[in-house]
């Protein structure tokens, strides 16, 4: 068993290749082989969001602070709040992040295959984000 204590993990910024705005990973964790689960705590400042992406086995998000938005391609944008648990289906394009006025933090958990946990795609445009 491995225990990572709060504050032990040095945070790092989200890559502009995958995120728009100020995004910080404050924890990262993964199972030892043969497990293939990875997760992290991700903090989004107001206006920050992921790019469009999908996951080979889906993704679970647990909102721990603030208010955000998420959207699956072809569906309406949905507000998410502290305590909400979002289950993103396998191989469905989606994005998630803070609202334009408030920050949001979530824990993200995904399972990968051959080291691939997400298929990152193009940025969410301001028009897509705000509608």
Helix/strand class: mainly beta
So what's the overall shape?
globular
Rg to the nearest angstrom? 14 Å
CATH domain class: Mainly Beta
| Tally of strands | 12
Task: Give the key terms.
single chain, 131 residues, mainly beta, Jelly Rolls, 8-stranded antiparallel β-sheet, two-stranded antiparallel ribbon, globular
Task: Report on the architecture of this protein.
By secondary structure, this protein is mainly β. It has a single domain, classed as Jelly Rolls (Sandwich), CATH 2.60.120.10. The protein is built from 1 helix and 12 strands. It is globular. InterPro entries: Cupin_2, HNL-like_cupin, RmlC-like_jellyroll, RmlC_Cupin_sf. This is Cupin. Residues 42-103 form the Cupin type-2 domain. It comes from Gordonia crocea.
Summarize the structure.
With about 130 residues, the chain is mainly beta. Helix content is about 5%, strand content about 45%. The chain is globular.
